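@channel anyone free to eyeball this complex?
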Amino acid sequence: MRDRVRATVSAAVTLALAGIVVWGIAADAPSDAERLEDLSARIACPVCEGSPIGASPSTYARDMQDLVAEQIAAGATDDEILRFFSDRYGPGIILDASGAWVLWAAPAVLAAAGVWLAAGRRRPSETP
Amino acid sequence: MIGALGQVGVLAALAGAILLVFEGLRGVDARPEGFRRGTRALVGGAVGAMLALELGLLSDDFSIAYIANNSATTTPLVFKVASAWAALEGSIVLWGLVLAGFTWLVHRSYAHRPDRLAEGALAVLGAVAVFFFGVMATIANPFEVCTQIAGASCVASSPWPWASAVAVADGLGPNPLLQNHLLMAVHPPMLYIGYVGLTVPYAYAMSALVLRQPGIEWARRTKHWTLITWTFLTLGILLGAWWSYEVLGWGGYWAWDPVENASLLPWLAATAFIHSSFVQMRRGMLQAWNFVLVISAFSLTILGTFLTRSGTIASVHSFTQSAIGPALLAFLAVVLVASFAVFALRADHVAQSPRLESLFSREGAFLANNLLLTVIAFVVLAGTLFPLFVEAFGDQTVGISRPFFDRFTVPLGLTLILAMGVGPLMPYRVARPAVVWERLRSPVRWGLAAGAAAVLGGLREAWPIITITLAGFVASAIVRHLIVSARKTVGSRHDRLGPAIVGVLRSDHGFWGGQIAHLGVLILAVGIATTGGLSATTTVLLERGESASLAGYDFTYRAGFSRQEPNRDVLGARIEVQREGDFVAIVEPRANVYATQRVPTPGVLSRPSGDLYFTIIRIGGDAVTMDVWWFPYQWMVWLGGLVVVLGGAWSTVMRAATRERVHA
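replying in thread with the prediction:
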């Protein structure tokens, strides 16, 4: 009886803790300032050797940051803002290489191949 | 005179290296005497070359072109010593010296017993040394005589010691970035020991393949050598990150710069090998895979050297440009083709692994670890090389930086941490879920408690919360495992828990060294998450007496100052930091003006809750413009890295101590 109570209490505590953690993760809604910082790290400054507009002190980069801030305030999504810049300056301006699908697909293919190989190493129980 | 001495050293080392290769090619007829002579000549020559270079630097012998262009009479003593590896030609002398040192250690490790595996490894080490000393003797000769000067630098030089020399008056001095912090004297040697040390596992791998001995003995020795060099490599990377934080002043310690990636890639391969070698030694599995990992680790060091030393990638580390680029690329191609050709020729002798009984087992966890590390390495490699390929073969450029790397490495790294908690609790062969769950139950609860505590403390950022939860889980799994193991010995071998814990840590030092390193990774991961996810930054323009604030700290520009040092002018700002009206400290970010370049030295105020970090952008008149950052719990990054190094050192040192006891 006492064991049952203890098990129930400990399960409840575990669930409550998990609930708090999940709630904390779900409550992570980026503020406009955080979005600006994030996007500023992902857009290159076209006149300063590929460094992001967030890290460049040049006037050009600051102007572009203002443009991003305006679009955030106007309610544009991250994708819309990135597309705006890649349409104007070419896909190279986006620093996470999201235009280069090869680069994104390759690790996934490698991981899948690895899992397949590892699973294939398992000995089927019927073979000697 | 000194230059001629150095040249003799290089040639003697080259001769020794050739002798090692030649002796190795004799196969069963090889004479121990030949290996001894070859090793002696290699080591003596390499030491002589380095001594000559240091002598030249310390005595300001500007008739040597390298010294004229990389040192100056005004260079402080410690940076004169460090100038030996401040540029291409000198850094190859250091490379050669470290390689000779490892060759000497390998020779000493088998000394008086006939040991064909080690002799083969010596021959391979010799072959690698032939390349590097060959480069020193030809296209990157550090002892060339200066024959023509223009302004303060030497513009033409001759390899012949009897050429009539001209000398500049004061020397150009090392690159300002390299004489700005003491770490420059320590970081490169540590990194080189780790980097070059990976030649030894590679040499043993090639020797084992050629001699058809791909068994346990190869894996045992290779793991031992890999662990030593891995420890130094980790320390070198950590010191590099620290240098970047303390010197470059861009506001961080890791930028996914191609050259940082170049040091990380072999580290990832070596880490994967250290884990998978356990599987080979315990279960005889993954033999072929282990060869691939060791060959890859070595090839990645050559690739890294190529990236750093050829000027291919314009980055903070690529200080040099010369004919060595094509030579290194050719050497890399030879290494790859030769290694995998030998591997293919000996494929029949690499034992067919026994098959895995269940993926839900320790072996399965090791496989998961290797898969994750390999994918991370692949992402880093692809992200580093892809822009080069696009630039070389396409008509547009592609920018790849932090967002790309973060997007892959953060989730992959966290999955790796999860595996780090589960793996060591799994038994070999087949794990019964009930047994594993019994061991996992309490750590899972501790992890959730850590995450919940962070959330209740006000944290609302997804990645840091996840990292803290996982770190709490893995840390409590490790501590629980340690206490459970120690309790078993209380009463029999020990009276109290304290000594019992030390006893456990010492007895299975290989495993527990790994667990210590894992604890370091956890601290590091939390540090990376908090400094990355919770940092704050602002740019301020302050007149004298004006204040601004960030992260609860108020800072006031009190005064500017300037002083002249022999090798530079220092401009600085005196910043007073306060918190809630109480004085905290004076911080002095500086801008150092060298003859050729301005280098900032950030002012860092380190406190338990985080670092306040100031970098001067502009200073003059009565105003200063600064970037200011707040990095919460920055110390966790350094502490975590040090604990990882400690874990590697624990395994190595305890192994040596145990062997001594056994032999005594």
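from a first look: Residues 1 and 10 of chain A are 14 Å apart (CA to CA).
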